[in-house]
Structures are given as structure tokens and as C-alpha cells.
Amino acid sequence: MHPITKNGKRKLNIMFADFTYYNRHTLYSRYTPLSIGMIAQYSKQKFGDDINVSLFKSIDKFFDKAKETPPDVVGLSIYFWNKAINQYAVKKLRQMFGKDVIIVVGGPSIDSNLKEQFNFLTDDFPYVDAAITNEGELGFYNLIKKILSDPLEVFNEPIDGLSFLKGDAVVSGKPIGLSLDLSTMGSPYLSGLMDEFMHSDYQPLIQTSRFCPYTCAFCVSGKNRGKLRGYPIEQIEEELKYVSKRYADRPHHTMYLVDENFGILKRDVEIAKLLKKCKEDYGYPQAVFFYNDKRFTGTSREVLEIMKDMTQYGVTLALQTENPEALKAVNRVNVTEKEIDSAIKWAKGLGLDTSTELIFGMPHDTRNNFVSLLDRSINRGFDNVLVHNLLFMDGIEMNRKSYREKYDYKTKFRPNSTHYGTHEGVFFSEYEEIPVSSHSFSYDDFWDIRGLNFMFYTTFNLKFQKWFFQFVRHLGIQLSEFYSNLMKPDRNIKWPSGYINFLDDFKIAVEEELFDTKEEMIKKTKEIYEANDGDVGEPTRINMNYGARLTYLENHWVKEVLLKHLDLLKGESLTVDDKNLASNLIDLANSERIDLNRIEAKQPLKFTVDVINWRKNKFKDPLKNLKMPEKSVKFLVTKNQVSVIEGFQKRFNTYKDKDFYNAAMDFVQPRKYLLHNLSYED
Asked: I need a labelling partner for 320 at 20 to 30 A (CA). Which of 64, 235, 254, 385 fits?
């Protein structure tokens, strides 16, 4: 029996948690708890003095508070990166308080399908009282309203927006969809609810609108139906000012807009102007991450034109796949070839980078058609090509049993990056479930793509030796071919020992990354954790770790290896001039990268081809066609770069070697701040 009575005067004590992990790796993945902040804000507005609310990211602080002041209601936000920690927390809450606490969970991991909800409530979270479906504010409001009006019989009848078990069946109230009037929400930032999280460990999340109109089966947003709505523009303006003032001393922190499609609304142009004004007035944000509208409308272009110096990836056209059968199977319609070419041409004219995201593992994907897509993405002129494995996440259509069986998916488990930790001696670790074979690709195909994934990430995301690889492309070599050879060299040829050691280490890390069961994965991760005094290390962020290793720490063998592979692929057709130019471009890339421990320009390099305009034109024409009188390329540093990098140094100057550079990859944003600006000497 719950302790609250109808006539009781005590405030209802509500604790919200959006748990994150605290270890040395997660400094780049901690964000303000916007989701629970919004639910808490709405609840406070509706129930006022009838409730007390508190917000938590740390599980230690959560249970310290729970022991001090036992909660009446706990609301937990669940994602695929904090599922295990929430399972632990729910079980512990039941052990501590029994039925004297009502536990409700919500978030994108809650499937809209009743059968999946039943499995979720019986198998994954058997100790919770209910799951909120769709928008958390309304579902939670209906729950608290019921508790305050009828505390002894909370779950005797359906509650709109909630699902709970009664016997062997799911009881689900009326679906509320995405229907909340956002003008009634208020702001958790402006009310002060988020103040305690706005410190150096957290990057700020901002939402200006809700809803995604697309129905992609691989995305948690694809199942939601409702209408696109925006928060009041006046509120957004005040929020942006409030946050920018408080992060002005930490310009290396990125601001994240969590709208599904920023630029889909006409008024997003006004919001872009507000963001730019904040940068001018407060020096923050220097960098803003957002997903632009997939359709890339005129509004998206206006937004990007305003924010061209603030975007993390410039223009993002997330293609995912171009296989017609795959697109049909995942309920997706892509932009057309003409629209892609138009967007890239427009971005080039504005000096913006262009990015695409691709997912390997879609239904009907083969190794060959995916490799063709990779090369086609480069040949189209994309500056960044981000390759992801398909993830079977809770809450997506593709995760359902029927879908898996239809396409004969076989999966393995791997640690979810660095999301692991302990509480009171109990270890827990998050995981990802990924397909390693299907009806259309084999296990060997998967491994081939894994190596290419790393090289595309390192080259186009981290900008490792981009000058050289663009030159290679103009010599008639497909980059997928060069990368495949780079990751699987002929071992009969004598290579630098550092190169071979790097490849062997990478292979071991990748092999150790995958497990047949999540239980095996957790057991192994725990063993590593305990053996290393609370550190998992690798495998966690393999692409990041080895990308930093290549980019910053092992330049001593890189030049020799790249030139030898070029010679092997081109043979006698490679001229002396080509060899010399390739060598000079490698030197240019090495000099272009800023020494993060000492921000100073490098010695100029001499060129007789116009490398600066070559890059400005997105490497469109062969470099040998851009002859010029010999000029020296200077390496410059802007005030913004100095400000951002010095802010990063203050935060991470205790880090050593790889850890320091790993952090730089995520915290110095946009990543162009890691590179010197180039100009010719007069």
C-alpha cells in the first residue's frame, strides 16, 4: 500500500533520473538532462506545491538522496545507452522500498507495439509499475493526477499514455501520441531546474521543436505519430541567452540542438539568427550540432547560410542506403540524385562542408553495393562520410522478432562505447546488438566493411591525410580499394614494424569487441574493469582510439606506408612528379594539424600547384591542372581557434598521450579548429 493518502498534506516526493556513466572516457558524452527536465518542469507547473521534484544524472547522488528522503514516485528515462544502469536502479529501489514507491519508465526505447511492451515489462523491466508511451509530460501528468486523487488504487483502470501489466496482459490507456501544446511547457532552463548540471562536465541540449515526419524503421523516431510543433520563439530566445551566458567560459563545449530536423520550420531561420547573435555577444556557442531536414529545403539552406561558421558537419544529407529494395524495407524515401548534386554544389559555393551518414546492415545490403555506395559518396564530393553499423535498439520496428526472422539476421553484442560503471560494488555495462550477417551479406562481408568503416571515419571525419587521399582518387584509384589494401597489406612485403603492430592491435581490438551473448560481453568487460582498477580501456571507442593513434601519435611510419601502397597500386604508371607531389601533400597534412600542446604556426611549405584553391573547390579538378609559380603555404591560427583550444587545454591538460587526443576529437568542435588555416606568403 502506498503511503500517500487522500487527506494527507505531505508533498509527493518525485525523483527523476536520466542516468549517465562517470569514468574517464565519458567526459565527451555527458549532457544536461533535458528530457527529465521538461517532464519535471511540466509537472511543477501543473501540480505546484503538491509535489517536490529533483533531477539526477549520477546514480550515486540518486541513491544518496533516496536514502535520505525516500521517494514516492521515481521517473526514469531509458535509452539504449543506459538500459543496464536503469535495470540495476529499478531492482535496487524495489529492494529498498518495496511497493512504497511507484516506478515508471519512459523514453524512446518503449515500443508502441503491445506485444513488445509486454516483453519489455516482463523480461527487461519486471520491477517497474508502468511504462510511459510517446510524450512523457502528458503520460506522467496523468499518472500523478491519478496518484493524488486515488492513491490506493492507482493501477485499477487504464491511464492514458501509460502501459502496465495486469495479470498476463498489458493494460494500455488511450494513446496520447505527440500532442502536447508546447506553449504550455515553460522552460526547465529558465526556471533554474537545470542550473546544477550546467558545469564543465556537461554539454547543453536545447530543443526548439518536436516530431519527425519520417517513418524509418531503423530509428526510434520512426514509430511516433503526431504533429510538428515548436516552442514559443520568445522562450527559445531567452533559453539561448541563458545557456550562452553560462557557457561563455567554456567555448570548447558544443551546443546540441535535439530537434529531429532543424530547418524544417520557416521560423528556424529566426532561431539561427538568435544562435549567431549569442555567439557574437557571449562567445558561445562556437559550434552547434544539429540534424538538418533530410529534404534540404530552402529553409534549411537559409539556416546553414546564417550558421556556416558554427555547424559541426555543415550540410548533412543522411542517405543511409541507396539500395531501392532496402529503402522500401525500412520505409524510407531518399532525396534524389539531382537534389544531392544541387546541395553539394550549393554548399561548395558557401564554403560549407557536406556530410553523409551511411548504415551497413540494411535488408538486401550486400558488401559490393555498400562499397559502391562508399565510393559514390566520395566521388559526389561529400567532405565527411560517416559509416555506422545497423543497431537493433529497443523501440524500433526492425528490432521485432518477425523482422529479424524475415531477413535472417544473425547478431552479436559489443560494449556500448564507454558506458560502464559500478554502484556499491555491483558492475553493469551497456551493450549494442548489431547484425553480423543476413540473407544478403556474410560474416566475412561484415568484417571487410568494419575495416573500411574505420578508414572512412579516420580520413573523412578526423581529416587524417585528406590531401593525399583526394590526390589518390584523382590518380584513378577508388578509395575503398586503397583502404582495403591499407588495412590488409601483403605480409610478404617488408613494412615498418610500427605499421604492422598498429594493424595487429586493431585486429585484436575488433575481435575482442564482439560477443555471442550479452552475458559473455558483460562478464568480459567486468574482468577487464577489475583488472585495470576501474578502467575498461579497449575495446570501447575503437575508431576514436585508433584514429587518434594514426593522426597524432604514429606519424613516423605513415608517410612511408602511404607512398609504398600508392606505388604498389599504380606501379609503372606512377610518375616521378606524382610521387613528389604525393610526398609533399603528406607533409602538408602533417604540418596543417595543430600541435594541441603548443598552439603555434609551423614552418611554411613550398608548392608549385594551387593546393589552397584545390581544397576550396572541394578537390574537384586534378591538382596537376592547377599549376602556379612557386609559393609558400603559411599555417595560421585564428582567435576563435586559440580560444577554443585553450579552453580545451584547461579542461584536459592532465591527460596524457592517447587520452588527451581522444578527448580533442570530440571536444574541439568543429574539427576544423584542429587544423591551421592556410594562406600563401605575399
From this structure: 254
The answer to whether residue 472 is domain-embedded is: no
> What is the share, in percent, of the chain residues with pLDDT greater than 70?
96
Q: Which DSSP string do the residues of 446-457 spell out, in sequence order?
A: HHHHHHHHHHHI
For residue 508, give the H/E element and its range.
helix 497-511
Q: Which residue has the cell 601519435?
A: 553
Residue 392 phi, psi (nearest 5): -90, 90
CATH number at residue 440: 3.80.30.20
Domain end point (choices 424, 443, 462): 462
**What residues are paired with 423 via a beta bridge?**
426
Contacts of 199 (CB under 8 A, 6+ apart): none
DSSP strands (E only) in 397-441: 410-423, 426-437
Domain's final residue, options 462, 496, 526: 462
Asked if 551 and 458 touch (Cβ cutoff 8 Å), the reply is yes
**Degrees (nearest 5) of the Cα angle 72, 78, 80?**
160
Using left for φ > 0, alpha for ψ between -120 and 50, and beta otherwise, residue 164 falls in: beta
* DSSP summary character for residue 73: E
d(C-alpha 22, C-alpha 24), whole Å: 7
The torsion angles phi and psi of 666, rounded to 5 degrees, stand at -95, -30
Counting the structural domains of the chain, the total is: 2
In a domain, 300, yes or no: yes
Q: 129 and 230 share a domain?
A: no
With a cut of 80, say whether residue 669 has pLDDT above it: no
Q: Do 222 and 146 share a structural domain?
A: no
- Is residue 603 domain-resident? no
CA distance 124 to 118: 10
pLDDT in tens, 534-579: 777 655 578 888 998 999 888 899 999 999 999 999 988 999 999 9
Beta bridge partners of 411: 435
Domain that holds residue 164: 12-172
pLDDT of residue 6: 44
Bigger pLDDT: 511 vs 67: 67
Residues 366 and 436 in one domain: yes
Q: Please count the other Cβ atoms lying within 10 Å of the Cβ belonging to residue 212.
A: 22
Residue with C-alpha cell 546492415?
361
In angstroms, the CA 282 to CA 249 distance is: 9
Q: What is the sign of the dihedral through the CA atoms of 473, 475, 478 and 482? A: negative
CB 518 within 8 A of CB 84: no
DSSP lists the bridge partners of residue 437 as 410
Contacts 24+ apart (CB under 8 A), 397-402: 397/217, 397/218, 397/222, 397/223, 397/331, 398/217, 398/218, 398/330, 399/111, 400/111, 400/113, 400/116
Query: Grid coordinates 532496402 are at which residue?
Result: 326
Q: What's the CA gap between 547 and 422, in Å, rounded? A: 28
Do 220 and 161 share a structural domain? Answer: no
pLDDT in tens, 352-407: 888 899 999 999 999 999 999 999 998 888 888 889 999 999 989 999 999 999 99
Q: What per-residue confidence (pLDDT) applies to 204?
A: 96
At 127, which CATH number? Answer: 3.40.50.280
Question: What's the gap between Cα 550 and its chain centre?
Answer: 22
